[in-house]
Design goal:
The complex is a heterotrimer of chains A (266), B (320) and C (286).
Chain A (H helix, E strand, L loop, with lengths): L1 H17 L3 H28 L2 E2 L2 E2 H22 L5 H7 L1 H6 L5 H8 L6 H17 L6 H31 L4 H15 L8 H10 L7 H8 L15 H26 L2
Helix pairs in contact in A: 1-6, 2-3, 2-7, 3-7, 3-8, 3-11, 8-9, 8-12
Chain B lengths: L1 E15 L5 E16 L4 E5 L6 H9 L6 E6 L8 H5 L2 E5 L11 H11 L4 H15 L14 H13 L5 E5 L7 H17 L3 E5 L3 H7 L2 E6 L2 E7 H7 L5 E6 L12 E7 L4 E6 L4 H11 L2 E7 L3 H13 L3
Parallel strand pairs in B: 3-7, 3-8, 5-6, 6-7
Antiparallel strand pairs in B: 1-2, 1-4, 8-9, 10-12, 10-13, 11-12
Helix pairs in contact in B: 5-6
Chain C lengths: L16 H20 L2 H28 L10 H18 L6 H8 L2 H5 L5 H19 L2 H10 L10 H25 L8 H15 L10 H10 L7 H7 L5 H36 L2
Helix pairs in contact in C: 1-6, 2-3, 2-7, 3-6, 3-7, 3-11, 4-8, 6-8, 8-11, 8-12, 11-12
The chains are: A mainly alpha (266), B alpha/beta (320), C mainly alpha (286).
Chain lengths: 266, 320, 286
């Protein structure tokens, strides 16, 4: 109980310091929303040149873009700033976090909560809404449930990827950009039908790292389309499971990282 | 209150060996430190850069895990029981802020009450005391990032004390402060020490901090404790002597000696002489000199702790 | 405070050209060496460039496969692959992202140390940035191009003019990119905090320079407007179009000339803004 109130206080502090400079906060909010918009506009621009990409129409692809947009934005909004860990390790500010009576990960997340990314969530939701409006989904209770679980699981999945990428800084301080290949790279990967990628690259990202289950498989199930790559339609429901597995891995790696920091200092 | 037994911390560093090869080498930052600090003690922990001060402090606060040896603070083992320990200790890292950068100082204090789960009345009482002793009222509503270094440090001290810690660790609390702020911080810590409730461990480069505050001085170099005792014991052990400096109207006759003292320098054509007092009391030496020569002015110079410590470092390091 | 080193010779019209060139070269060297120390960050950044190379290349190739005539925006598959992979390398040379040094120095007041030097900050920072670009040219272009060539058929230039024209185009792109970033950073002279403008820049520059997709995929009127009215296509799109020979030689040369015009305008603008800012500092005392 006391701990929850402590975290709530940290959140309140973050809220107040974010809004202390209203103009720059507003500018950052708008810029961030525009950022997500650009990702979506890119999809439209590419489909201007081709009616079908990787065997999917624009409307079908939007379903994937929409799930990804919502999931990624939610993850980025909540734990995205964990990539600041690099700075915490380099400057030694992590020491100050370690001498407080709270867990390390929640402290870091709450201390830097990027509220300026809030507007992105609206854009993400909008894209998902647009995708639903432009596709004729044959609604069943299972599909309705999927519409809720897929974006949420996707967010958990991306959150875990953010934590994993950031945790690399415990071992390799200058790893920051490396993580972007999986976080932002994963977002780009899942924004398109995975049929567009070459086979080994697709196997690695989609099945090896699990990105294929974030938006591609759930979108197929929502659209009622068979997977041209051969996975059965229930694969669309796997995203919560995949998210759970990746989160567990992320939790273990994070703990190992903190332990490593404790033994080496840096 | 604090126990360290054979505490060791080694780091693996990669050293260049040849053009491309890199060798791993073990370096002991803290090499077998055993110390016992009782409740209410105020201990100065000093040493040259890289001696192992910060590493020790980090092991005591649960930031670093020891390679071997045992450590307990307030009856807890710092790393495994980090969050419980955090409630009982206060830490000030001179260079790293505990405060919320964008928020007014007072706001940081309010947040810390929740982070450390302090009952409102206790929090209020401690804050009131700090506000008085450290003169915080003038800048309580100023965002931390606009505070001067001295103001910020007073804020950091308050932040470290609001949850009523039993042990206070201060890493370079006066670094970069102006004379007035240093004075404020020192007298505040002195006040804190007089109550005897708080155990205080202080690392510093400014030996004046130690002279004012700490009865006990621990000197560490190359990971080893090279002195543990009072400042007087340090002087006694390293033979620091008082000196007698005299300005004379007429230079001393050649072959003049002062029993129990050695003439260590003459300046201004013999018009100024310095004796280092070995086995003679200052009063006797003064009397002897005044009868033997025409003394215009005379002073007894106390040994400087800086000199002693500087000598200590070079002794241990084996440098000239 | 080596920043206060007064022995740096001045670049001024009254001094012999040789001394000014030597100063400029020394400043370039410092920029080069500074980035040479970030070896690990270079490796991490290269890895990420390669991942994004694969992502963008596969997507654009799939677009080409689905497009009527197989040539979206007038690019064939080889040209698209080259566009992406060389673009991933060139991105770092042009360095459109991640430069807030000047804004930081203005905010903290350290900029005063730059102002007392006998070299204009615009010139000094330009020299350092060219050094940075030279370092990136040596370290950041090779790996993605090599990986691209291993996995995809790439286009090679068929006209001899292409190579020198590309070299000139890249240099102009670096200068234009530098001046844009300088101006964005310089907003810190007037605003409390250049974070907002910097974010706008990061956001707009990538897409409008042609990093996410070739600008020729946009409607013609929009593409032409961007080229003529902004320096942004000159940062990435023009050098890449030159390299993959998207247009006839005359048009290629024309696009590079347009780049040159924009680079000159932006450089003049940077100098003008800097002078205004200095006057303001003198009047208001920072």
């Amino acid at each position: 109980m006391g701990e929850l109130r402590a975290y709530a206080a940290l959140f309140g502090g973050r809220l107040r310091s974010a809004t202390a400079y209203r103009t720059s906060f507003a500018v950052e909010m708008v810029t961030n929303a525009a950022g997500t918009l650009i990702d979506v506009v890119t999809v439209f621009v590419l489909y201007r040149a081709a009616a079908s990409v990787g065997g999917f129409t624009l409307d079908e692809a939007l379903m994937m873009t929409g799930i990804t947009a919502f999931a990624f934005v939610l993850a980025d909004l909540t734990v995205g700033n964990i990539d600041q860990l690099e700075t915490y390790v380099r400057t030694g500010r992590l020491d100050a976090v370690l001498v407080r009576p709270l867990a390390v990960l929640p402290q870091l997340i709450l201390a830097d909560l990027p509220l300026r990314k809030l507007m992105r969530l609206a854009v993400g939701t909008g894209v998902l809404g647009l995708a639903l409006a432009r596709n004729d989904v044959d609604w069943t209770p299972a599909r309705a449930l999927l519409l809720v679980t897929a974006p949420i699981s996707g967010a958990v999945f991306f959150g875990a990827i953010f934590v994993l990428s950031a945790a690399s800084a415990f071992w390799w301080i200058d790893s920051g950009k490396l993580g972007h290949g999986f976080t932002y790279g994963g977002r780009d990967f899942t924004s398109y039908p995975i049929t567009v990628y070459g086979s080994w690259f697709r196997t690695l990202f989609a099945y090896g790292l699990g990105f294929g289950f974030v938006s591609y498989q759930p979108a197929l199930t929502l659209l009622g389309r068979a997977d041209p790559l051969g996975l059965p339609s229930w694969a669309g429901y796997l995203s919560p499971l995949i998210a759970l597995v990746v989160s567990a891995i992320a939790a273990v790696v994070w703990r190992l990282g903190v332990r490593h920091y404790r033994s080496t200092g840096s | 209150m604090i126990e360290m037994r054979e505490l060791r911390k080694t780091f693996t560093v990669r050293v260049k060996a040849g053009r491309l090869r890199r060798e791993k080498r073990e370096v002991a930052a803290v090499d077998g430190v055993s110390l016992s600090i009782a409740r209410g003690e105020m201990v100065g922990y000093i040493g040259p850069n890289g001696a192992g001060k910060s590493t020790t402090l980090k092991m005591l606060t649960g930031v670093l895990s020891p390679t071997s040896g045992e450590v307990s603070v307030s009856g807890l083992r710092p790393v495994p029981q980090r969050t419980r320990l955090a409630l009982r200790i206060g830490v000030v890292f001179g260079q790293r802020s505990q405060l919320w950068w964008d928020l007014p100082l007072g706001e940081s204090f309010r947040l810390l009450r929740y982070v450390y789960r302090v009952p409102a009345a206790e929090h209020e009482a401690r804050l009131r005391r700090c506000r008085q002793l450290l003169d915080l009222d003038a800048f309580l509503d100023t965002p931390v990032r606009q505070l001067s270094l001295g103001q910020r440090m007073r804020g950091e001290l308050t932040a470290a004390l609001l949850h009523g810690p039993e042990v206070l660790f201060l890493d370079e609390p006066t670094i970069g402060l102006d004379v007035v702020s240093k004075q404020a911080v020192r007298s505040f810590l002195g006040e804190l020490g007089r109550t005897g409730d708080v155990t205080l461990v202080l690392t510093t480069h400014d030996l004046a901090d130690i002279e004012r505050l700490c009865r006990r001085l621990v000197v560490i170099d190359h990971g080893h404790v090279v002195h543990d005792g009072t400042i007087e014991q340090l002087h006694a052990r390293y033979g620091s002597r008082r000196r007698l400096v005299a300005d004379l109207d007429v230079p001393l006759p050649p072959g003049f000696t002062l029993p129990g003292a050695t003439m260590t320098s003459t300046e201004a054509d013999g018009h100024r002489v310095t004796f280092t007092l070995e086995s003679i009391a200052a009063g006797a030496a003064v009397a002897a000199l005044v009868t033997a020569a025409q003394v215009r002015d005379l002073s007894v110079v106390e040994p400087e702790i800086e000199d002693v410590v500087a000598r200590l470092y070079t002794d241990v390091s084996g440098a000239p | 405070m080596d920043a206060l080193d007064a022995s740096v010779p001045a670049i001024s019209p009254r001094r012999p050209i040789g001394a000014s060139v030597a100063t400029f070269r020394a400043l370039m060297g410092s920029g080069f060496r500074r980035y040479a120390t970030y070896r690990q960050a270079t490796i991490a950044g290269t890895f990420t460039n390669i991942v994004f190379g694969f992502l963008r290349c596969y997507v654009l190739l799939a677009v080409a496969a689905g497009a009527a005539g197989g040539a979206p925006g007038g690019y064939d598959a080889r040209q698209l692959a080259t566009f992406v992979w060389v673009g991933q390398g060139l991105l770092n040379v042009v360095g459109i992202w991640g430069w807030g040094d000047l804004a930081d120095r203005i905010r903290t007041g350290d900029i005063v140390a730059d102002l007392v030097r006998p070299v204009s900050p615009v010139t000094a920072y330009l020299a350092a940035d060219l050094g940075r670009a030279a370092h990136a040219l040596l370290t950041r272009v090779g790996p993605p191009v090599l990986v691209g060539a291993l996995f995809f058929p790439l286009a090679t230039p068929s006209r001899w003019q292409t190579v020198p024209l590309f070299a000139v185009s890249v240099l102009l792109a670096v200068i234009a990119s530098f001046t844009c970033r300088y101006l964005v950073n310089a907003t810190a002279y007037w605003l409390d905090d250049a974070r907002g403008p910097l974010m706008f820049w990061t956001l707009g520059s990538g897409v409008l320079a042609g990093l996410y997709f070739p600008l020729r995929l946009l409607p013609d009127w929009l593409a032409v407007t961007l080229w003529v009215a902004t320096p942004l296509p000159g940062l990435l799109q023009t050098p890449l179009d030159v390299l993959i020979e998207r247009d006839q030689p005359a048009l290629q040369a024309g696009l590079v000339a347009l780049q040159a015009v924009w680079a000159a305008i932006m450089l003049a603008l940077a100098h003008w803004v800097q002078r205004r800012a200095e006057r303001r500092l003198v009047v208001q005392g920072g």
